[in-house]
Each structure stands twice: as C-alpha cells, then as structure tokens.
Amino acid sequence: MNKEHLKSIASQVRRDIVRMVSAVKSGHPGGSLGCADFLTYLYFEAMTEDSSNFSMDAKGEDVFFLSNGHISPVWYSVLARKGYFPVPELATFRKISSRLQGHPSTDKNLPGIRMASGSLGQGLSVAIGTAETKKLNHDSSTVYTLHGDGELQEGQIWEAAIYAAANKIDNLIATIDFNGRQIDGDVEDVLSLGSLKDKWQAFGWEVFEMDGHDFENIHQTMSAAKSKLGNGKPIIVIMATEMGMGVDFMMGTHKWHGVAPNEEQLTSALGQLEETLGDY
Amino acid sequence: MEGIEILGNKDTRSGFGEGLAELGAENENVVALCADLTGSLKMNAFQNAFPERFFQVGIAEANMMGMAAGMTIGGKIPFTGTFANFSTGRVYDQIRQSIAYSQKNVKICASHAGLTLGEDGATHQILEDIGMMRMLPNMTVVVPADFNQTKQATKAIAEHKGAVYLRFGRPVMPIFIKPDAVFEIGKADVIQEGTDVTIIACGHMVWKSIEAAQSLAASGVSVELINMHTIKPIDEASILKSAAKTKCIVTAEEHMANGGLGEAVARVLASNTPCPQEFIAVNDSFGESGKPMDLMEKYGLGASHIHDAALKAIQRKS
Q1: Are A188 and A194 in contact (CB under 8 A)?
Q2: Which residue ranges make up each domain of chain A?
C-alpha cells in the first residue's frame, strides 16, 4: 500500500465532493467526506475489479454496494477517478438527464453501479444475494458493502444479519460508516444503537473495528478481515469516521449531512483540500 | 359451452410448483427463495430436487426481495415465493427500488391472492396487489387462469428478461386450458368468440366467466370471452378488436376495482373507442373470513353477478 498515493487521491475526491454538491446546491457532503478515505482505499487498493470494462454480472470481480446511497458524491468521484466514466461527467451531478442521479441508479447505465440505493436498509440483503450467486458460480471474489450507522435503524438490516450468519455468508465484508450522526442529530439522541460491536457479535458476525481515516489502520484491519473470508462467518467492519472530514467547519456536527456549501464556504473548503489530480 | 372441456380440478399454486420444478431441471440458472411457506407455495419439489438452488429465508420477506435482486448479478433467475400480501404490500419499497427501478430479472411469485384464500380473512386476502404491481415501471404482471396455464406461465416468465409479478391462488378450480397450450406474455386468449358482449377476465374469474357465458347462452346472449392473463403489458389489440365487434365490455377480477384489470381495460377503451363497461371486482372493501366461494358470492364475484353485469352492459349500448 502506498499511503501517500491514497492520501493524494482522497484529497482530490474531497474536492470533487464539495464542488459537486456546491454546484447544484444540494446533496450530502458530510457523510461523503467521511467515507472518502475508505472508498479510495477500497477501489485503489483492496478490490479486484475492471473499471475499463464494466460488467453487470461481475464474474470473477469483487463487487461493492453502497447501501447508504445518499453519499453518492464520494462514490461517483471515486468511480470516475478510477476510470469507470469520464471525470468531467462529475459536473452533471444531480442535473437533469444526468447519469449521476441524486442517489445511485442503474437505469441510466452509469458504469460501476449495479443496484439503486437511497431508500435505506436494502443493500445488505442485495449483497448477500450476490454473495450467494458467487458461491453458486464457484466465483471466489468478494462482495463489499457500506452502510450508514443511522441506516442500521432499518429492520431489514437485521433480517439480513440473521440470514447471513445462519447461512455462513463468508464471502462478504460489510462496513459501517460509524460517524455517530444522522439528519436529525446524533445517533445516540435520535435512536441509540447501543453497542454495535455486541449486537453484531450476538448476531453471529465476525466483527472488526477501525479508524476510517488512518490508511495504515484501514489497511491492517481490512487485510485481517480478508484473512477471515471463507471461515463460515459473515464479516463486518465498524469504521469510526468523522462526518465532514477534511473541511473544518463541516466537522463535529450533523448539520452538513444534507446541506451544500455556498460560494464563500466552498472557497474556504477548497482552501483546505489540495488539488492533486486536477479538478474536473 | 362449445370447445370448453373440464380436464380436471386443481389449485393454480400447484401449477406453479410443477412449473418451477420443471424449470429447475431445464435451466440451471433458476433459483428459488421462500419465506417459510414452502408447502403452501408447492415449492417442495424444487427444494427436494435442487437443494443447492433453494434458499429458505425465514419470515423475512424484505430480505428475500433484496437477496433476489442481488442474486441476478452473476446471472441467476430468482423466483421468490410467498403469499400475495407478503409478496407486494409488505415489500413494496424493496421491489420498487431493488427490483423494478434497478431493472432486475426477478420473478415474484405470489399465492393465496384475493378472497379465495378464505378463512384466514382480510389480513391475508390482498385485493390491491395487481394495482401496486402494475403501477411500477419495468414490471410485467401475469394472472393465469387455471392450473395448466399457471404452469405454462411459470415457465414462460423464466424466458422473459425482466421483473415479473405472477399471481395465483389456493382453491381447487376446474382446469380448462389444454396442457400443451402455448402461453405468450401479453397475448390474451380468446376462450370463446361471440357478438353481443365481451367479458374480459383474469385468474379464477375466467372460470366464473365461463359459467356466466353458459347461462347467458341459455338466455340467447352471445358472449365473447377473453382470458386477459397478462395485465401488464395489456393486450390492447385484443380489447379493441373485440369491443369493435360487441360494443360493450364486462371485466371480472378477484381484486379491488381500484387499480385492477378493469381500470387497465377502461383506459384502453377511453383512449381509443369508449364503450359501456361494467366492473366485476371488489368495491373499496377489505375481505373477511369464510369459505372461498361463499366470499366470492358475498363480494359480488359470482357467475350470476357476471351474468347480470353482461345484461346491463348490453342494455347500456342503446
């Protein structure tokens, strides 16, 4: 792993995020910034996939599902920077007739996306389905998902959690963006999740915890998680993150969950994020 | 009635079960998921023959729909099985986002639809499912008429690329479609040609309409009877051709009038050649416990109701 390389990509991804949401004065910058490091790691270090020849069926390729679809800006930026589609297309985000819908969709054929998401709580079931198909196809690649912490309040997540443990879905690594915040406030105040680690362990999952902004720790933890694949248990990584990471005035609050920065705020944000790969 | 022969008596869900088991042998990409109703859905034969392709998900329908959507990635053709209520209303958002909007090749197979579920009562007797499913873009809606047709439809939808809602039921009913009949999605069956009135029916109501056509024939009324087994896409050409001939329509469905077959037909007529139409359907009401055929009578879905509606439609022509 080249930590400096990943850091420089993540910095550009963060610039893309704030520019995308600012341009259309809508979207979700907070969670997107918080997951920029992890998605950069996933696509530029962890996953085996073919960005130049996107295939819906993903045979022999690792698959990623974004269950908390509202952080689409970070996914779009990472996909574009990885080569799934032209980087300048990021400028169309949330605009009419764009392939970059507010929440990810398949119906406009944007390479890299295999499932719509936005209505929360559905991605874990989807990932388990794809994991089952990979097993039937004797395909040894891995399925990854990302979920918001607030999203875990949806009941379907726990239906899926029961199924995955009971059926030994061990070709799946789920991750939780544990930033502790949701639209109405802190998760602890809105609807406390109690101990996430205890819950997932009690549901029969192999649980890892990591710092979602420390590439060394991400690499170490994800490598350890990968080493547990095929051991008869589903795997989950609870990733501590800071909503708004990288932009000082967006951190430490839930208020930037779904609010775009104005011109002045954009200038301030971009001043904190190095342009490494060239703005679109 | 000429050309109509009772070939036996069976439930449509058993047609699904047989069709699914045959599909399992013919197409290794077919997989089945069930939410703790394997016996009720008659999925045991598939389960026993292809255990590695059968997925018992427990009482967790939302997870089942999401899993089915995910299983299509990699080329599988998932068939989900549970009651019609739990196949639609309970999981509408999962179907909407992960299957219909995401353009996934999932076959949602729903038994125990409508009043003929019987004694379990209104909690289980869904009468809104056709409406919910036909509103969804990318969704095909199929409601076969008898055991043989349900089996044929089960096999046909595996060949169709895209999401399908297949609706069938619990009661034992006469079989009248030939076992070797060809089922084509979107192409209505003309069960009988006639000149005075057209009855367009789906599901169990096709048999009820055959009974009505027989009593109408005895009264000197010539009925054209169409089995509209595909509600979406609806066979506009068949509707318009028959309406041009008989100039009045009765629709018959074991479903709410709101959103069902009748409204689908009415839209075709209103947009082309309006003509009198009578609706045999449940009128904005939940069902209740009772014997299936007693419920059909109480809620106005009996052969006599279709008979009377046909006479009324004919009267309205003048």
Answers
A1: no
A2: 3-271
Binary contact (B67, A133; C-beta < 8 A) = no
* pLDDT single digits (tens) B186-229: 999 999 999 999 999 999 999 999 999 999 999 999 999 999 99
Which chain A residues are within 8 Å of B68, Cβ to Cβ?
A: 129
Predicted complex ipTM exceeds 0.90: yes
Distance from CA of A20 to the nearest CA of B (A): 24
| Three-state secondary structure readout of B287-298 | CCCCCHHHHHHH
Tell me the per-residue pLDDT of B139-159, one tens digit each, with 9 for 90 and over: 999 999 999 999 999 999 999
Say if A129 is an interface residue toward chain B (CB within 8 Å).
yes
**What percent of chain B stands above pLDDT 70?**
99
Backbone angles phi, psi at A206, to 5 degrees: -80, 120
* A7 close contact with B: CB closer than 8 A: no
Q: What's the rounded mean pLDDT across residues B92-103?
A: 98
Cβ atoms within 10 A of the Cβ of B159, count? 10
Say what the pLDDT of residue B8 is: 98
How many C-beta atoms surround the C-beta of residue A230 within 10 A? 12
Q: Name the nearest CA neighbour of B132 among B231, B24, B4.
A: B231
Q: Does A132 lie at the interface with B, CB-CB under 8 angstroms? A: yes
pLDDT at A154 over 70: yes
As a whole number of angstroms, the distance between CA B47 and CA B39 comes to 10
- Interval A221-232 mean pLDDT: 98
Domain map of chain B by residue range?
9-174, 189-317
Q: Does residue B1 register a pLDDT over 70?
A: no
Domains B9-174 and B189-317 share a fold: yes
Looking at the partner chain, which of A65, A115, A160 has a beta carbon nearest the beta carbon of B63?
A160
Residue range A202-224: mean pLDDT, rounded: 98
Give the architecture (CATH level 2) of B189-317: 3-Layer(aba) Sandwich (3.40)
- The whole-number pLDDT of residue B231 equals 98
Name the band, by pLDDT with cuts 50, 70 and 90, for residue B3.
confident
Cα–Cα distance between A67 and A12 in angstroms, integer?
23
Say yes or no for a CB contact (<8 Å) between A105 and B102: yes
Give, as one character, the DSSP assignment of residue A51.
T
Concatenate the DSSP letters of all residues of A260-274 into one string: ---HHHHHHHHHTS-
Q: Give me the architecture of the B9-174 domain, per CATH.
A: 3-Layer(aba) Sandwich (3.40)
Question: Which residues of B are tagged catalytic?
Answer: 61
Residue of B nearest to A106 (CA): B102
Question: What pLDDT was estimated at residue B2?
Answer: 58
Query: What is the reported pLDDT for B318?
Result: 76
> What's the CATH number for A3-271?
3.40.50.970
A162 close to B (CB below 8 A) = yes
